[in-house]
Amino acid sequence: MMPLDHFNSSSKSTFKNRYWLNDTYFKPGGPVFVFDSGEQNAEPLLPYYLQEYHGLSATMQLAKRYHGLAVLWEHRFYGESLPFPVNENTTADQWKFLTTEQALEDVVYFADHLTLPSRSGFAIPSPNTTTPDLNPIHPSQTPWIFIGGSYPGVRAAFLRIRNPSTIFASWASSAPVHAQVDMSSYYKAAERSLTRNCSADWVSVTKFVDGMLLGDDENAKTELKERLSNARNAGKGGGRNMSDVSAAGALMDPLNFYQYYGFESSVLPFCNLLETKNYTSTPTELGIASSENVEAALDAFLIAIAELDYNAIPGTPDDPIQDRSWMWQYCSEYGFYQRGDPNNPLSIETSLRSLELFQEQCNIAFPNGSLPSSPNVENVNKYGGWTMNPSNVLFTNGEFDPWRTMGLASIEDNSPHRTPNPAVPPCNQAPSNTSTFFGITHRDAVHVTDLRVLLTPDSNHTGFKTVGFYSPVMMEPFYAGLGLFELALDEWLPCFKGGKMISDDQRIVGD
What we know:
This protein is an alpha/beta fold. The protein folds into two domains: 301 residues, Rossmann fold (3-Layer(aba) Sandwich), CATH 3.40.50.1820; 197 residues, no CATH class. It has 16 helices and 14 strands. An eight-stranded mixed sheet has the order 3-6-4-7-8-11-13-12. A two-stranded antiparallel ribbon has the order 1-2. Helix 5 links the parallel strand 7 and strand 8. Helix 10 packs across helix 12 and helix 13 packs across helix 14. The longest helix has 18 residues. It is globular, with a radius of gyration of 24 Å. The protein starts with a strand and ends in a 19-residue tail after the last helix. 46% of the residues are buried.
């Protein structure tokens, strides 16, 4: 049982926190590899990340190489690890236990109390033991290594900084370690990946639609909303009842799958339809708005949306627990408001998505003063944000990942513009050059492309909403990231100063 409140000694409340183990490759003295599921139900990840269904996972490949115990960890307030029911009736007094610090301390508590299952065939202490040196998998006796992508990657970095005696090393993939309320940069990363003509037309159409919806001509606004609604909803209309921001949001539909699929797989088909006017004309280098006018570009844009019909793409429904819990986290601490920036001349996101709108949505979802007036990003950035420089942590990013903008590899104007260095730093020593960090940026890749690889595609693992986080669309980042982390662990693991390690002929650095 997990304590509800780690920081109040008088609190006796607990809840059940789920986890799964795979000891297939474990030998005494081997590390514990924890894969963190983060802001989602962990159970659907089980066959992919702990059982290697249809491919390989970094966690299991590491467990195999280093004779380790593999763990899949579920975050509090997600899946079935619920201290309270999560819905519109969850109270402020209940939400207050979903914080960065409480969730990080869950991992520390778990590491202090996990014992080997009896079916492992190894001598184990009593499940109630509180003596670390009697427990061969306690972090004082064997290295604990934390692996995560996206928000779990943030946690991987934080835990190494916060609890180095518990987490010996981490792999932080696509980790937005810098919290910021204004994240207009999210769509800047997508715009950078577009072809020249598609980018120019997208920018022109967005500015035109924003101008119309913010204007005073009500008849023109109504007509435009109908056109946007017809494109999005297969000609079913309904635009008259749409809000301005919802209508303008139709222009973002082609980016629905960008985060995990990138430009070539998810946006290029749209751009091809747009620039050829549904394959009826030859594309021009500067785009339709430049060669003709913005009205022609808008017509082609709406036809392309209608032809692709994003609403018809099958997939699993949203998880209301996941959606509400993550909304609490970004409304209370992380920000990441993906607004449109009217001052950005290359913005492809509507400026109607403002910071004020995001904050209003947060306040409506969590009323009665349960939220701060603005997300407390200082609770997150106290670990260093863009300037963090931990030891024994690998940071990997995708070149065109929207979340790279909040990671160490950020190239945004207000970031320190640090660059990745794949040279493995010495064990337990932070990299000496703070203008760089230990890691790599995968060329042309997007979000969390390196923690799993799909080897045997089938009808359930080929299209939108069937791959993504479960099986990235690229193979090369997996092998590059895994190979570099193995080189790092070969360097770092021998310096672990804990209890008795495995014998020399089964060195912890692998076979």
